[in-house]
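Researcher: Following up on the earlier apo prediction. This time include the ligand. It's farnesyl diphosphate, with the SMILES given after the sequence.
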Amino acid sequence: MGKQSSNLATQLIEGLCSFLRRCICAILSAGSLPRHVAFIMDGNRRYAKKQGLLEGDGHRVGFTALMNMLKYCYEMNVKYVTVYAFSIENFKRRPDEVQSTMQLIQEKIESLLEKESIVNQYGVRVHFIGNLKLLSKPVRLAAERAMNATAHNSRAMLAICIAYTSTDEITNSVEETCKEKMNELGGNAADSKEPLIDVADVEKHMYMAVAPDPDIIIRSSGETRLSNFLLWQSASSLLYTPRALWPEIRFYHLVRAILDFQRNLASLETKLKQC
Ligand SMILES: CC(C)=CCC/C(C)=C/CC/C(C)=C/COP(=O)(O)OP(=O)(O)O
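Model: Understood. Below is the ligand-bound prediction.
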């Protein structure tokens, strides 16, 4: 009886929260909504330390926070979400830490394919973005399975940056562009008077060519650096850096970021009119 009434109370609270979120969404929809929001999920280990948890448990709570945030974004019709899950620099951490984070990531990739996951609820196509050759075989295979299984989804997109840094993405793209041009022009490349490469050529080979540039980048834990994340794509992105550690991130942080984005857009439009 006690358990039944507590389940009912939980359902009522969840229903009320979902209703309030829909009301806030309707209000925010009066202005422009972002198409693409990207997240730097910083502060998981600090959260574990603060709460007296094991280091890896910070990342577990962080994954739950990510699932909630994806739900809020897709409810708001934000079509593209990108997350920085593991940078190439992160491979320099203690080997046992890298291994346990990778194990968790593999487990969570597999959970994304379960019937009741956010990915299936919202028809999300998943892309893994980065130098996937650097991943261990089980993680790479899990990532490939997830990309194949969701390839037909088109309502929303989730880009998971893993074994990623922007400088690696740009270098790889320039290399691919050069190879393409050499194939096209052969021995005549050196004699050409025209520029051989333009911005569109390089952009086409970026791992992130699957999505438009992010409108907003949210970095948790109050850090105001981009840490080699989407450097090419962030020229016009709004950066929002709440003090909350990633596992503490909530719906109101997203609302605040969208309000800042709308204010910023309004002042940009005024400036353009004055030009
Ligand atoms: C499938 C999928 C998307 C899984 C994601 C799981 C997850 C939450 C990974 C975060 C990994 C990471 C290195 C976060 C940065 O916090 P930190 O470890 O650097 O913590 P700190 O900033 O406190 O040092």
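Model: Residues 41-46, 59, 62-63, 66, 83, 85-86, 90, 101, 105, 108-109, 160, 221 surround farnesyl diphosphate (CB under 6 Å).
Researcher: Noted. I'll compare it with the apo version next.
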